[in-house]
């Protein structure tokens, strides 16, 4: 079999470049990559990725763990699809592939096993659960020094690498926008309390209310499950109290739009709608009628950030020193959120 | 190191089950899987996935190649996200992970290399290009007997395994729905001619027109790029000819909604809109105002079908005999499309 030097000579590049190309490490010009691959093939120097991976204990894969619900069309959820797009973009820029793994609800994921079995070099966990089994699995991962990052879930008291958006401030902005216009009876349709993201929204709502000298009326605090259907259901409650409720803040756009649909189904006209503010600023917000004000969450940028942090961690110094040495305050990184104002929440009278 | 038999005894299962679990082959009950993994770990029998893969030349990964456009938020496109959800579902059911790889536009993809380097056991190609380099790469893949499947692109004269939807019939249905209600001047906003899917839509439009005793007026044939923006641009042409154009058929929902937005921007009221039929039946269709009639494409089911075909091919007999022996007529499989009628295309007068 040909040597690495022969491949380098034929391709007209250095031996180091041959290694970088064949190990998929670092950014490499497409033309250079092609030259090296062609030279390798011409000389019969096509090392098996597995043999190479075996030698250097790297798979070249960035893992992404997603919660799996049969038939749920997971990739179609705005939340996940945007984060995955950002993750994929950074992975691609760094010559890594994306290994998508699904976790069945209720299953305790053996994250450590993914690293021991060398399926991934680093791992992003979406939809982590806030329960004892999950926490123990993540603590083990950290003890063994494997690079991982949790997105959109916060484990208080731990120093896991986490990437999220500032939902406290986003929710505060939404409430302030409403109270500044004189809305007083604001219904808040939150997601399940088990997600830290829901708890943060509630906190932001309370801060916003307090800033306006108000208190959250607990009878106006509703709970959905982040699905459109649960918004339609909440509309039943809201419709009966439309004489008092003058604004609705929903913890995501799907629920806000569900409430709008539910009101419309009950024959309530758009001009009689309360003010609406949603959350996520998904495509649907702009297309809603009336166009929906919404708190923009930079999901794509969050995905890019998480991937970048991990790629640097796994390519950099010994992975074992990375996670454990990160001080808690830099381990968690929050990107800013921004309220986008559209017709649904602008007071006309 | 412990033997497979010891693991089997401790877990209370057969040795074959131990192998199936550790090789990730076939459907396995979660409880059984856990028992085997726990027994393996207890006995220190945790074979490296790479070593195992090396021995059996299987990665356990189902590859998906996607076209990559920087910043394009690819996973957020309805088309891709639904197909990936279907693919992911079948992969998960069969204990396989999904290896997502991105292809830069203009790059000639070395598909064969993915198999030679044992990154994947089978591969799905989305967004294949209809050009010479791509065709040659696919022909090589087939000659070497690697299981692969092309989605949403047709290579005429080849016997590649292909999964697509019946876009000729879908477009015919859309046109017949319009002509049956008496619409005569139908503008057709198609996507780029380089996609076989666009060509099929045009063919369906012509058939539908002919069935109604009409011919497609070439001055009413417009071309966009499947993006919303190109619909907004087409609205400029449509707006100036609204006295003659009484219906618009767009090759996807995003363009149809773009046309609606463009008309609205020009101060044209919904009651003065032409009839609209879109294509894909994405989430956006239902949420549009007026709700958009659209041709439903079973993207999710297409993803499931492609994954199933490949998983059977790669798990079944020697992969080398699978692709090459498929007769052309079964190599290509089309799922039916269905027109969903909503308010946008129902004639009131």
UniProtKB/TrEMBL annotation, chains A, B:
* SMART domains given in the database record: HTH_LACI (SM00354)
Q: Name one GO molecular function term.
A: DNA-binding transcription factor activity
Q: Where are the transmembrane segments?
A: none
Q: Which residues form a coiled coil?
A: none
Q: What is this protein called?
A: LacI family transcriptional regulator
Keywords assigned by UniProt, alphabetized = DNA-binding, Repressor, Transcription, Transcription regulation
> Which Pfam family is one of those matched by this entry?
Peripla_BP_3
Q: What is the lineage of its organism?
A: Bacteria, Bacillati, Bacillota, Bacilli, Bacillales
In what residue span(s) does the HTH lacI-type domain sit? Answer: 2-56
Claim: rRNA-binding is one of the keywords in the record: no
């Amino acid at each position: 079999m040909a040597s690495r030097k022969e491949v380098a000579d034929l391709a007209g590049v250095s031996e180091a470049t041959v290694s970088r190309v064949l190990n998929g490490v670092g950014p490499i010009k497409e033309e250079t990559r092609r030259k090296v691959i062609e030279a390798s093939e011409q000389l019969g120097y096509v090392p098996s990725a597995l043999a190479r991976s075996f030698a250097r204990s790297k798979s070249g894969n960035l893992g992404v763990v997603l919660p799996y619900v049969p038939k749920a069309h997971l990739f179609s959820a705005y939340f996940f699809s945007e984060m995955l797009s950002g993750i994929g973009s950074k992975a691609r820029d760094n010559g890594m592939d994306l290994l998508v793994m699904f976790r069945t609800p209720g299953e305790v994921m053996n994250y450590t096993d993914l690293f021991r079995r060398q399926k991934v070099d680093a791992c992003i966990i979406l939809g982590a659960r806030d329960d004892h089994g999950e926490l123990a699995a993540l603590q083990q991962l950290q003890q063994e020094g494997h690079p991982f990052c949790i997105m959109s879930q916060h484990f208080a008291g731990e120093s896991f690498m986490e990437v999220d958006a500032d939902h406290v401030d986003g929710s505060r902005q939404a409430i302030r926008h409403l109270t500044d216009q004189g809305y007083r009876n604001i219904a808040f349709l939150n997601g399940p309390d088990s997600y830290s993201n829901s708890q943060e929204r509630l906190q932001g709502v309370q801060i916003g209310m307090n800033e306006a000298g108000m208190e959250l009326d607990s009878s106006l605090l509703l709970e959905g499950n982040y699905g459109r259907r649960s918004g339609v259901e909440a509309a039943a409650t809201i419709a009966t109290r439309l004489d008092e409720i003058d604004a609705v803040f929903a913890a995501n756009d799907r629920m806000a739009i569900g409430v709008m649909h539910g009101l419309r189904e009950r024959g309530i006209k758009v001009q009689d709608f309360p003010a609406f503010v949603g959350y996520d600023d998904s495509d649907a917000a702009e297309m809603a009628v009336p166009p929906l004000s919404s708190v923009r969450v930079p999901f794509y940028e969050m995905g890019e950030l998480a991937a970048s942090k991990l790629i640097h961690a796994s390519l950099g110094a010994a992975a074992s020193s990375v996670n454990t040495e990160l001080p808690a305050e830099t381990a968690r990184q929050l990107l800013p959120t921004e309220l986008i104002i559209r017709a649904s929440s602008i007071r006309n009278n």
